[in-house]
Each structure stands twice: as C-alpha cells, then as structure tokens.
C-alpha cells in the first residue's frame, strides 16, 4: 500500500538503543569514543590519527581528554601493543581473525594497562563491558581472557 508523501506518523515510543547505551560513566563514554575512532580507522584502512583529526574538526563539542589520550597513545605504541595483543591470543586465533570491535577494545585496554596510571582492573572492566554490549555473544569472555593475560604479563615485568 502506497503512503502519501504528506502523511503524518505518530511516534509510539523511543527508538531502542543498544543495551546500556547512554548509561555509561564519563570515562566509559570516552573509551567508547576511542573505540569508534580505532574501529573506523581499521575499517577504512587509514590511520587512527587521521580519523581522530576528522572527528576533532567536525565535533560540536570537544572530544574527551581520555579519548584523545587513548587514540594518540595507541598510535604512538601501535606496533608494540598490537604485538602484545597478538601474543596473548589462544592457539588457533590470529590478530586479523579477531572481530574488529574486540581487537580494538583489546588495543585500548593494552594501552591503558601498559602506558597509563589507570588501574588495570578498570581498563579490563570497561573493555569487557563494551565487548558485551557491542560485539558478539562470546566477545566479553574472549576480551576478558586476552586482557587478563596482558595484565598478568605486565605485572610479571
């Protein structure tokens, strides 16, 4: 049945959001924004700093300081952090095979554990929470295992 162009519609309820969306603490929102930037850079095959710069120019409000710290910090240590994440994968998995959201959450957590004063448990908790909300059914436990190994290795040094 065709609907006339001038038809009016009544909104019967709010548009559903992802579970937990909009209810994140400020620092989790900053990590989610960093995830968006790293994910987009991955998908487009461009540098994270290029995407960060595009977002910075287009932003109506400034990007959160933590978002900037994560993106710039990861970019500075990308090879080291990607190697660390790859080394923490269980046998049979490769870095390239990881779901993109999981890969980028592990990158963020690895940066925070290795190069910031953020408590490791906080970085791990947010990575696992975001994986559970935004990725596959098994992603939360997958990311948890990788980040736990990153923390174990960091504490062993």
Describe the structure.
- The protein has 157 residues and is an all-alpha fold.
- It has a single domain (26-156), classed as Orthogonal Bundle (N-utilizing Substance Protein B Homolog, Chain A).
- Helices cover 64% and strands 0% of the residues.
- It is built from 7 helices and no strands.
- The chain has helices spanning 26-44, 48-58, 65-76, 78-87, 100-115, 120-134, 139-156.
- Helix 1 packs across helix 2, helix 1 packs across helix 3 (65-76) and helix 1 (26-44) crosses helix 5 (100-115).
- The longest helix is centred in the first third of the chain and has 19 residues, at 26-44.
- The chain is globular and about 45 Å long.
- Mean pLDDT is 89; it is low at 1-17.
């Amino acid at each position: 049945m065709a609907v006339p162009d001038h038809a009016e519609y009544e909104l019967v309820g709010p548009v559903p959001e992802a579970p937990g969306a909009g209810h994140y603490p400020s620092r989790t929102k900053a990590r989610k924004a960093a995830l968006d930037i790293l994910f987009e850079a991955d998908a487009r095959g461009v540098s994270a700093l290029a995407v960060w710069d595009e977002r910075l120019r287009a932003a109506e409000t400034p990007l959160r300081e933590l978002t900037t710290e994560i993106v710039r910090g990861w970019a500075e240590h990308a090879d080291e952090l990607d190697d660390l994440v790859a080394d923490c994968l269980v046998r049979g998995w490769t870095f390239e095979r990881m779901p993109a959201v999981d890969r980028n959450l592990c990158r963020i957590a690895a940066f925070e554990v290795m190069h910031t004063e953020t408590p490791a448990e906080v970085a791990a908790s947010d990575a696992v929470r975001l994986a559970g909300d935004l990725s596959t059914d098994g992603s939360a436990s997958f990311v948890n295992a990788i980040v736990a190994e990153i923390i174990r290795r960091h504490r062993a040094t």
